[in-house]
């Protein structure tokens, strides 16, 4: 059950024209069986060596050992492709169906489960990239290439064949391509991660739902600060407290909902539907 205070503010929000933004992290997909990148299962073991995500998930490491990074990336891609959306994902897709052009999804997840659940490409900002595209590691071109479908599922530690390695070469300069993901030693940009567009929409956001993220990266923090500065409502849906919690707890327009997103998001969707009379917003022209 949502509190009376939150229900009241949701009703006021629905009467206006500001944006609904949903910001998601690894906690949403963890319920679909995808290990969080920072958890124990996010480590990469090579022989007796355990590489931390902050080490192997870097451009510097890729430049030294590209095959190791690709083996790690392909194994995680296999896990992601096998996974199915859970009720958290489908509830967020329902929110887009309700709000339409008042809706934006900002996700730190690269697994594609939001799109598989029904969210649209043009309203989904994958600010850490995605597993379905690759790009030149030397930036000879800014083109994104579709991931080669000839490369199938990979077990943990399984290497690439010579033919598969050739499929990962840039069509323009023949350099090895890289996963289209944001690594730990890189910065956000508009071209690949739509960072400027995300912040622009944050300035128009009246309701921000934070789901399954600890708030440890820069752009989500900027989004949160922007929404708070614009006096938007913030609802944090997580299993435990995160870097946003203290400020939300001290705010009259901030709410902490603790529990599984697959359980709490359906309740939130039902409440919004009741307040809306089950009618979606009109598409803007």
From TrEMBL:
Top-level EC class as recorded in UniProt: transferase
Residues covered by the Deacetylase sirtuin-type domain: 1-275
Keyword NAD attributed: yes
Gene3D superfamilies noted in UniProt: SIR2/SIRT2 'Small Domain, TPP-binding domain
Record key words, sorted: Acyltransferase, NAD, Transferase
PROSITE patterns: SIRTUIN
Enzyme Commission number, as recorded: 2.3.1.286
MF annotations from Gene Ontology: histone deacetylase activity, NAD-dependent; NAD+ binding
Domain of life, per lineage: Bacteria
PANTHER family for the chain: NAD-DEPENDENT PROTEIN DEACYLASE SIRTUIN-5, MITOCHONDRIAL-RELATED
Name recorded for this polypeptide: protein acetyllysine N-acetyltransferase
Organism of derivation: Rapidithrix thailandica
Lineage per the UniProt record: Bacteria, Pseudomonadati, Bacteroidota, Cytophagia, Cytophagales
């Amino acid at each position: 059950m949502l509190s009376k205070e939150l229900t009241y503010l949701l009703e006021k929000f629905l009467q206006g024209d500001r944006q609904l933004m949903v910001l998601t992290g690894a906690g949403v997909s963890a319920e679909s069986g995808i290990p969080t990148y920072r958890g124990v299962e996010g480590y990469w073991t090579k022989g007796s060596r355990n590489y931390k995500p902050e080490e192997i998930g870097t451009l510097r490491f890729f430049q030294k050992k590209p095959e190791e990074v690709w083996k790690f990336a392909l194994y995680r891609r296999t896990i992601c492709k096998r996974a199915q959306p859970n009720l958290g994902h489908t509830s967020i897709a329902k929110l887009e169906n309700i709000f339409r052009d008042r809706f934006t999804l900002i996700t730190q997840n690269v697994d594609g489960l939001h799109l598989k659940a029904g969210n649209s490409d043009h309203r989904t900002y994958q600010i850490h990239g995605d597993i379905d595209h690759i790009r030149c590691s030397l930036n000879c071109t800014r083109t994104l290439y579709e991931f080669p479908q000839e490369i199938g599922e990979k077990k943990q530690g399984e290497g690439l064949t010579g033919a598969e390695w050739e499929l990962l070469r840039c069509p323009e300069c023949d350099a090895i391509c890289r996963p289209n993901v944001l690594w730990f030693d890189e910065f956000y940009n508009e071209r690949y991660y739509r960072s400027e567009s995300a912040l622009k929409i944050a300035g128009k956001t009246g309701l921000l739902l934070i789901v399954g993220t600890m708030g440890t990266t820069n752009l989500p923090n900027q989004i949160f600060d922007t929404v708070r500065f614009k006096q938007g409502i913030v609802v944090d849906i997580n299993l435990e407290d995160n870097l946003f919690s203290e400020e939300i707890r001290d705010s009259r327009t901030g709410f902490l909902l603790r529990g599984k997103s697959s359980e709490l998001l359906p309740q939130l969707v039902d409440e919004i539907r009741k307040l809306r009379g089950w009618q979606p917003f009109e598409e803007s022209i």
